[in-house]
Amino acid sequence: MRLFFALGLEEGINQTARAQLVAYKNRLSGVGHAVPDQNLHLTLAFLGDVPDAYIPRLQATVQDLQLPAFSITASTVEVWAQPRIVCATLASPPQALLALAHHLQTLPVWPAKADSHAFTPHITLRRGVKDDDALDLPTPPAQTFACQRFGLYASPSSSSDESIPRDNEGRALYQCLHQFSLC
């Protein structure tokens, strides 16, 4: 199962900021393919394909992390040529976010899949973006999210599996397997 740790951004306290981000994402029609609203998240560590037998050990190891809650403010939008996405980015990522990502990326029980790029916190809004889509993107409103929890998520690895939950457009949805509280 393909797993990743992420800030899900769906906590009740974040409803207004999340609604603004969804509205902004939907205003970008014609720019790539929209990420399903339910899949909006900030990836902390991508683990890759993890055998089911490791999931309880991952959960137990992460359950013991004692890291503080924090807030993030997504205030800019960027187009990244590779991996061809439009994403909301953070002008000033808090140190607590960077520490959380570092801890999750270096777990001894199952380390994050090696990435050639440094951790850059972002929320993917649209995929499959062409270079000329970067022209004239509207300025997003700044959205601040309170981050009191993060989750272990499963990403569908098969587009033909009928048991995978989907949105009303048939796009696969991520599944949160477990939530972890921040202090």
Automatic annotation (TrEMBL):
Domain (Phosphoesterase HXTX): residue spans on this chain: 15-84
Catalytic activity field: a 3'-end 2',3'-cyclophospho-ribonucleotide-RNA + H2O = a 3'-end 2'-phospho-ribonucleotide-RNA + H(+)
Short sequence motif named HXTX 2, residue ranges: 122-125
Active-site feature positions: H41 (proton donor), H122 (proton acceptor)
Transmembrane segments: none
Span of the annotated motif HXTX 1: 41-44
Family the entry assigns: Belongs to the 2H phosphoesterase superfamily. ThpR family.
Record function comment: Hydrolyzes RNA 2',3'-cyclic phosphodiester to an RNA 2'-phosphomonoester.
Entry protein name: RNA 2',3'-cyclic phosphodiesterase
Source organism of this protein record: Salinivibrio siamensis
Lineage: Bacteria, Pseudomonadati, Pseudomonadota, Gammaproteobacteria, Vibrionales
